[in-house]
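Format notes (please read before filing issues)

Several people have asked whether sequences and structure tokens are stored in separate files. They are not. Every record keeps both together, in the order shown below: the sequence lines, then the token lines. Line labels are part of the format and must not be stripped during preprocessing.
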Amino acid sequence: MNKLKLSASSAALVIGIASIGAANAQSLGGIDEIVVTARKKSESLQNVPIAVSALGEEALDQLGVDVFEDYLLQLPNVTAGGSGPGQSTIYIRGVASTTPNLTTAGVAGLSPNVALYLDEQPLGQPGRNLDVYAADMQRIEVLAGPQGTLFGASSQAGVVRLITNKPQIGEFSGKASMQVAFTPEGEMSNKLEGVVNIPVNDRTAVRAVVYSDNKGGYIDNVQGTQSLRDSARFRPEGTVRSNGVAVNADRKGKQAQDTVAATDTYLAGVTFDNADNGEHVEDDINDTSYNGFRISALHEVNDDWSVNAGFAHQAVESDGVFFVDPELGDLKIQRYQADQIEDEFTNINWTVDGRLGALQALYTGAYTERTTDQVVDYTDYLFAGQYLPYYSCDASVSYPATGVLPSGTCYTPDSLVKSHTETTVMTHELRFATPEDNRLRSTFGAFYSDLVLQERNDFTYLGSENNNWAPNRSYNDGYLSDTGVWPAGVIFRNDIERTDEQFGIFGEATYDIVPDRFAVTLGARYYDVTVDMDGSANGSFYNLGAAEDQQRGGTNIAELFSGNGAGPDNAHSDGVITKMTATFTPEEGRMFYATYSEGFRAGLLNRPGGSLSADGTYVIPYEVETDEVTNYELGWKTTGLDGRLRFNGSAFFVEVEGLQTTIFDPAIVNLFFSDNAANAEIMGLEGDVTWLPESIEGLTVAGAFSMLDSEITEKLVPTNDVAVGDELAFAPAFQGNVRVRYEWMTESGMNAHIMPQVTFSDKSYSDIIRINRDEIDAWTMVSVRTGVSRDNWAAELYVDNLFDKRAEVARNYVNDRTRTTIARPLTIGLRFSQDF
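Then the structure lines:
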């Protein structure tokens, strides 16, 4: 591997950099203590031998963190693929491979490798994470590195935990806030939020929060036309795409000539009808609203036992897309259908906490229902899809007679996908902990989860209707389909049910070899995970399954695509992962640790399992195996200058075996498939510092950094699209942020503050699949906040993205066109809050 490199600009950001997760409050003794539950028990951040970043409640408020995009920008070791609300996949420390494909999330979606938790409940889902609104949060914790012993299958790269404020017994309190913001290149935004804590009696309290956040759009859908002349079906070998990768022999069009000029001559007798997006032209198309509430109740049964129950509901509605086309100019895109998403979830959770003799006991459970309806403009698929002209062109064009030049009409290429998903997740965990003052102490328990995802995707090619392609295919009571016929224009339909069932037994034990100085922790988890898929993924021409496959409880996906029932009934994995940590505390305020930890991600079934590559050298596996991570880490947590300086960090080396990846390679099969495509290594360094200068009362310097060097070390699939030596996806060589907050008392007796912040990210790549790989540009953003407060009210003026930079947080090149997801442009806002 290459050595880690630090540029001059990066070094400047590292100097004085501080923990963005640290509380900003300045106390007489120095930096305030942060309490976290990274090891499923409450303890000081400085005593936890894990790389933990914690955005406390005060920091969340000061930074204006509300949604996923907000805290993504504040945590340097966290990146994301995908684009838009509820459509992103979280990555930590660069353990990433493929841009998420939301239109096949149920059929072929990889399980997440970063666990997302709301309090004690995991919320991660295949294909897309929940975008939980960060209202009335106590803190957000990010645990970097494998956390599989305590958090299970999807925590192989880390865990993101959203910890809510709990009801406070004996205390009535509340807070209301409102906010308005103006984006000069887009629409106005506004937000209302209210929180109330009500004591019912001396042992019971209820807490409720309600919010409504309307975020104005800033991306324009501009006029354009498009025809099937640009289809991949007619693309010559050697054509160089905008990402610099040339079309090889396996990727050239099925009706391509030797050169572009020859192709034009070949198609001279074909009439191409243009799709025109005129009716969808609109400015600021990507507006979004978050509306929801959460209510929880805490009851202390007695001095030893308590019960906490909660109910939450959230609805997200979003129009348009959150990526732009750099070829069209600033903040512009061409869409031929009206993209939209409605994403709604309801969550019920409960926790029973108490003592059984010397043991602390906790049982927690949760039930979540999520429904998502999405319309995706699929017109871009024509640039990569070979078969779109087959449905949208006259037969004399698609399959001309031998020796005859094609003639006839290719109708409009505009297309769309209508996606409907229904997801339910049930989780249960029972765990116990021994007293913390014991020399030998432990946490142990069992976990069970059951996820059921039902999904229907209708791939509609509008040009096929002009081509009189009217299959009128009957459909018999599928998982999400009524009895009847397919809608006009629907060429493919996925109608499947996916179940992910996980069981685990876990434990960690710590022994003080030398009390208060040297301790050893050993952890292990036995896991048993089963992923099953039933249903159908069929074309309108009846070539992927018989009529009975459409019925509820129909043929297994693997059997459907193998054609002979040779595939397994499910993807099953079980085993044991371990963790070992040695902690050395030479004196108070200095702690060092060394960790060996393992993590895994569950496998899945493959749609085209059993298919043989054209050259007969490779068989697509029916079952994609788990991919595994081994992490070696050295870390430190130090406090000095009488508690006014804190420096935490870690250096790590990660081995990834059998990295799961989604691939589309026509030399193998004309369908997306998944496989354990590569082995990889990651070397990194991350840290945070908080400094309260003694000479300047009221000043806090805070920030964080992450440096990564990732590399594919071995290719496991015979495709030219994966290359040894390439970097992993979404793994910038350097990310960092630094902020300075100064607080002072005005002559009128008000508390005033000003806080500038700089955030930087180096370049990275959007995929490890070279055909889909695009470079995500480096960026720097500056923001500033200033305000005043007095007694129980506060007012603040803020400017985000002060210099109006186009910060690229992600890219997508799946359809041979650059689609760049950018952070919100320059935004000026005013916020007012009142405590009562």
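For reference, the curators noted about this record: The mean pLDDT is 87. The longest strand covers residues 490-514.
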